[in-house]
Each structure stands twice: as C-alpha cells, then as structure tokens.
Amino acid sequence: MNHNMHPEDRPAAEWRRLTGHEEAASALPEPSLQDPVAVGTMFCNALSDPKYFRPVLTRFVTPESLSAWGDFSAAATFLDSVQDAGYGSFAERALGDDDVAYFKILSGVTDSYQVLDEQIIAAAGVVTLVWRPELGEWRVHGIGEYLKPEDVPHGH
Q1: Residue whose C-alpha is closest to residue 12's, from 123, 122, 110
Q2: Cα 126 from Cα 145, distance rounded (Å)
Q3: pLDDT at 15
Q4: pLDDT band at 134 (very low <50, low <70, confident <90, very high)
Q5: What count of other Cβ atoms lies within 10 Å of the Cβ of residue 8?
Q6: With 0-12 CB in 10 A as exposed, 13-18 as middle and 19+ as buried, what is 6?
Q7: Predicted confidence (pLDDT) per residue in 21-42, tens digit
Q8: pLDDT single digits (tens) 61-85
Q9: Which of 4, 44, 118, 135 holds its CA 20 to 30 A away from the CA of 34?
Q10: Closest Cα to residue 34, out of 129, 117, 119?
Q11: Distances in Å between the alpha carbon of 17 and those of 87, 107, 122?
Q12: In the predicted model, is pLDDT for residue 146 greater than 80?
C-alpha cells in the first residue's frame, strides 16, 4: 500500500501522469490580464530578462509596489535560484479574500505532468497577485513569500 507514503515517495504513476510539452502548453490559459495564472506565468517569463522586459514587468505590478521592485533584478535572482523551476496550473485564492491569489513556483520540475490525485505540493515561492477592479485586471504585488491579504493594496 502506497497511500500513506509522502507524495514524492509514491511511484509517479499513482499521483501524476507525464505529459509532453505541447499538451502541457495547451492546458495553460490564453494570455489575459483577467486570469491570475496567465499574469503569473507572463510575469515569471518576463523575469528571464528583466532589463529587456522592464516595460512589460512594470505593467504587471501594482502601482503601490512599483518603486519597491527597482529594476526587477532581485525578483529575477530569486526566480533563478529555484532549481528546475516550474509553475502551478492554477492560482490558489487567499482564505477569506478571493481578490488575492497565489501563483505557485515549484522546484525540481524536470518533466511536464498532470496531477491525477490531490497532492500537497510545497512551493519554492509564490507570486502574490491582487484583483484590481478599477483596472479590471490582476496585478502582481510580490514574489517569494506569501503575502497576507491585509498587506496587499486592493485599489478602489
């Protein structure tokens, strides 16, 4: 019996199904500022070259946090520090506040896969996003640790 084993110790076939990159890409949302997974993915992808993508990165963050991001190099360094980084396929809403979402950054992702069974998967970090109704879009407020909803500006 393997049901009492830690998910990482279970045979892969029991809790996940390996997929090809094309299948995994087709499961991702279309680029949209109304989807926190899409915003989290685009933000992390833009961190691959923060100098080149600075105009894009500044567009994705909350106005209140813009000055704290600086040139985005600290965020890029954090993401680079995650070995074999991969991303979750959904954004978890904050407890008691659906306007705050957490996009998981996972480590050790060497293959694309579909989760078949509920798993507790520890994140190496998260992108904290907030829905801004006055803008009609999700914005990034932080990367790394989970930010509490009360520490995230919700706009007007």
Answers
A1: 110
A2: 6
A3: 47
A4: very high
A5: 11
A6: exposed
A7: 565 455 555 678 899 999 999 9
A8: 999 999 999 999 999 999 999 887 7
A9: 118
A10: 129
A11: 16, 18, 19
A12: yes
Beta-bridged to residue 139, according to DSSP, are 130
- What tokens appear for 121 in the block? 């998967």
Residues 45/142, Cβ–Cβ less than 8 Å: no
Cα separation, 77 vs 133, in Å, equals 31
- Mean per-residue pLDDT of the chain: 81
- Tell me how far apart the alpha carbons of residues 143 and 44 are, in angstroms, rounded to a whole number: 9
Mean pLDDT of 139-156: 93
As beta bridge partners, residue 97 has 94
Query: How far, in Å, CA of 70 to CA of 82, rounded?
Result: 21
Torsion of CA 91, 112, 84, 128, to 10 degrees: -10
d(CA 50, CA 71): 7
> Residues of 46-78 as b/e, b for ≥16 C-beta within 10 angstroms?
bbeebeebeeebebbbbeebeeebeebeebbee
Q: What gap in Å lies between CA 77 and CA 40, rounded to an integer?
A: 16
